[in-house]
Amino acid sequence: MNSRRQPDQALPVSAEGLGKKYRRGWALRETSLVIPRNRIVALVGPNGAGKSTLMGLITGLLRPTTGEITVFGDRPTGKGLHPAVSYLAQQKPLYQQFTVTETLMFGARTNPTWDQRYAEYLIEQAAVPVDARVATLSGGQRTRVALALALGKRPNLLLLDEPLADLDPLARETVLRALITEARTQGITVVLSSHVLAELEGVCDHLVLLHKGRVLLAGDVGRLSADGTPLGELALNRMRQAAQEEAA
Ligand SMILES: Nc1ncnc2c1ncn2[C@@H]1O[C@H](COP(=O)(O)OP(=O)(O)OP(=O)(O)O)[C@@H](O)[C@H]1O
């Protein structure tokens, strides 16, 4: 009999003993976690904690050194993204010379599941001029275009690597609100990485806290902070405890 666990196709992400080692050392170690459906997940941790590495393993852009990861039951192949997954990298790669309309045309050409009307609706909601070139847009507008490109694919899982990093506080709030509205109404699982947990407090319902390549805290926010302790405080306490354990 095969004792190997069957991957759960309903789970956006499931990882068991997952690790990634670069030449300089381990970026992620012994990571076992599950990301349930329809959640807004905060993937947080200080610089170098392993957030981008975990995203790279989910997308298949990186191969695990140890362990296993499945995305909707499939092991990432490394040959392009899973059809149900959209990924927005930290640098928000967009063609600067394209207009917004041309950017959406590019989305249509490169995604078999593209929903043009939905992408146009998202641009309209953001009040971004469609004939403007990407290079001339503000940081907030560029983020909205990048999000329309990512959401236009109609993903079930959306991975956003520090999407708010270059935005001012007002733009952060607007972009986040628009994103959460879409995720909730469309039933999309969103993984948002950030090293500022405070900006995701009240927004996320699931937390994954990484520190030095290890998962320090993970799970449902309601359960983790059942006594009402703010998430930021919870995370900080857990990191302090880890530092003390290391020093001992
Ligand atoms: N391509 C690479 N080659 C070698 N080391 C790498 C590579 N990418 C990341 N690392 C190292 O792996 C560790 C985790 O990096 P990673 O980028 O995953 O962290 P992060 O939590 O996303 O950090 P940040 O918040 O600064 O973006 C760091 O020590 C980093 O220097």
UniProtKB/TrEMBL annotation:
Residues 13-237 form the ABC transporter domain. SUPFAM superfamilies: P-loop containing nucleoside triphosphate hydrolases. Pfam families: ABC_tran. The keyword ATP-binding applies. It comes from the Bacteria. Keywords: ATP-binding, Nucleotide-binding. The keyword Manganese does not apply. GO terms for molecular function: ATP binding. Gene3D superfamilies: P-loop containing nucleotide triphosphate hydrolases (3.40.50.300). This is ABC transporter ATP-binding protein YtrB. The lineage of its organism: Bacteria, Bacillati, Actinomycetota, Actinomycetes, Pseudonocardiales.
